[in-house]
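In this section we walk through a basic example: taking a raw amino acid sequence and producing a predicted 3D structure, encoded as discrete structure tokens. The instruction is simple. Fold the sequence below.
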Amino acid sequence: MPKQRSSEADASKQGRLASLVRKPATWVVGVILVALAATFTSGLQSLFAGLLPDGWSEPGDGIKVVDVRRQPVSGRVLIPNADAGRFESRSDATESINDPEWEAQHEWYAAGYITWELTLVGRHSDPVVITDLRPERTGPCTKRLEAGTLVEDLPQGEGTKIELTTAIDANVPQLTSAKDGSAYFDGGTVTLAKGETVVISIEATSAGPTCQWVLEADYVDHGKRETMTIKAPGDRPFAITGWAEGHPYDLTWNGSCDHAMTPEEAATIEKPTDCN
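The resulting token sequence is shown next.
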């Protein structure tokens, strides 16, 4: 009997020893399996990423609005606040209204007509297709504005060719070709590959009413239909009012004189030599 008990004790010790050996071995094997799984998963991700277009995983819109600016010397600007009368000279007035930073920080309206230039660039390797670009008013149009300072920034001779035009005060404003008056996006599209840039010129007009508006762009990106809103500098709506003849504005900066004129003074100016 003592020999049997001794054998049983030895067997028990060997079992505990085997158990202790198996636990670290199991842990090591587990670590190795996890590492192999991570490596395999990473390899699969790299493989699939290599099969997709470069821009597929880029976040954000497929179109980037690089610039929105008022084309220089593209019409009159009405500034309906007291700060507008603080321009020191005509050149100061015209430089200010053509400065994107000034535009973004001040309230102003195009008077009669204006030309905006949009610069768009594609962001994804899979080409982005613009299927529609349309003006949308942000609210009802109101009566023409006359109170404020008018800065005339009229073009001298022929300016940059205008591609599109729109009457913002129309019942349903739409973009039409400046060449033939046809609806530009009625069956037509604009396609942007990654890094490709397009500049769209839009002449907006109002015969009298004051209107605020934005541009809505519909496009297809990776087979999915998307919409983006384009606004004026300062994240403001585009704004336009009608132009009134007869110099009814509080002050007018025009090309004849190097000082701001009251309505009475402006009515007497017919040529530069009339300025004092």
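Looking at the output, two observations stand out. The chain has a mean pLDDT of 80. Residues 2-51 form the longest helix (50 residues). In the next section we compare this with other chains.
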